[in-house]
Specification:
By secondary structure, the protein is an alpha+beta fold. It is about 25% helix and about 25% strand.
Length: about 325
């Protein structure tokens, strides 16, 4: 188990913010997770639990304990279940599942972060969400040190939400996640510009690997590499509005993109609204909006977490003023 004092978190957040924590704990198996839970119980120090840091914005040093999972490993069962350690890199697991002939994760290719985050954040992209695949989540209750297992329904998944982000926040250390996949490849092609990109390559019936490659190409074309320009991917959640609100806006903006949720609700891309407000490619000091994807806020070099928060707040103000819609960060701001 890693147990480090006065530890820099620069390598643990993709914005590249050089903030420190008082103590850093990383558990590498279930027994160490139980020990970490004991330390947290017996300490009066505040703590936070992180994953790969791809959904994290640090605004200051953290005077407390930062915990993350280093549990690795994966296994397959004959009924198409794949169980993964929470510390595995998510995209590595997507690649492995396809290589082994288990399908369902293709549209979630290249999403940064760890397996544990998939269960907490309900990550999603291109019409697929982790909740569509998660069967069970296994972890340790910090208050008791006891092992717990939850089925999909118990986690109460919603759009970028779960009980782990709400009333269960910081109550459990996630150790493993089991996904229900399929031996039959059923491509999901009707979200975003997937079909258009397939057409360019003359692919009408792509294999799972070809679909993964297309998703990776699309994401690479829109999203900056965090190793080159600090960012956390999509900074804002796409708002879901009433159909009445959507129809009112659609009458003003004929080309407004949207995604049907149900008879009463419609999702409007936050990136499109931010672009309409003139923010794409603009900077506010050392923080900015990516020039290829307005949903992505970037560290242009040396930005502090507070500078990125200021940019976030200005964008929120402008979107509300123009569209009458509140947009909220997907990123966890500490």
């Amino acid at each position: 188990m890693k147990d480090l004092k006065d530890y820099s978190l620069k390598a643990h957040n993709t914005f590249g913010i050089d903030a420190k924590c008082s103590r850093f704990l990383e558990f590498e198996n279930e027994q160490e997770a139980v020990e970490v839970a004991r330390i947290l119980r017996e300490s009066a120090t505040p703590y936070i639990i992180i994953g790969g840091g791809s959904n994290l914005l640090l605004t200051k040093d953290f005077d407390g304990i930062v915990v993350r999972s280093g549990i690795k490993g994966y296994s397959f069962e004959n009924d198409c279940r794949m169980t993964c350690g929470s510390g595995e890199v998510w995209d590595d697991i997507v690649a492995i599942s396809i290589e082994k002939g288990y399908y369902g994760m293709e549209n979630l290719s290249l999403i940064p972060g760890d397996v544990g985050a998939s269960a907490v954040q309900n990550i999603g992209a291109y019409g697929v969400e982790a909740k569509d695949l998660i069967e069970t989540v296994w972890g340790i209750e910090i208050a008791t040190g006891k092992s717990c297992i939850w089925d999909n329904a118990a986690c109460e998944y919603g759009y970028r939400q779960s009980r782990f982000k709400q009333d269960w926040k910081n109550r459990f250390l996630i150790c493993k996640v089991t996904y229900r996949l399929s031996k039959t490849f059923t491509p999901h092609l009707d979200y975003g510009n997937i079909r258009a990109e397939l057409e360019k390559k003359g692919m009408h019936e792509p294999t799972a690997q070809q679909l993964r490659d297309i998703i990776i190409d699309i994401r690479n074309a829109k999203l900056p590499d965090p190793k080159v320009m600090g960012n956390a991917g999509s900074f804002f959640m796409n708002p879901i509005v009433s159909r009445e609100k959507y129809e009112s806006l659609a009458a003003q903006y004929e080309q407004m993109p949207h995604y049907e949720i149900d008879a009463e609700h419609v999702k409007i891309p936050a990136g499109w609204m931010i672009d309409q407000c003139g923010w794409k490619g603009k900077r506010l000091g050392r923080a900015g909006v990516h020039d290829k994807q307005a949903l992505v806020l970037v560290n242009c070099g040396g930005a502090t977490g507070d500078e990125i928060v200021t940019l976030c707040q200005q964008i929120q103000h402008d979107v509300q003023a123009k569209f009458g819609i509140d947009i909220h960060p997907e990123v966890n701001i500490i």
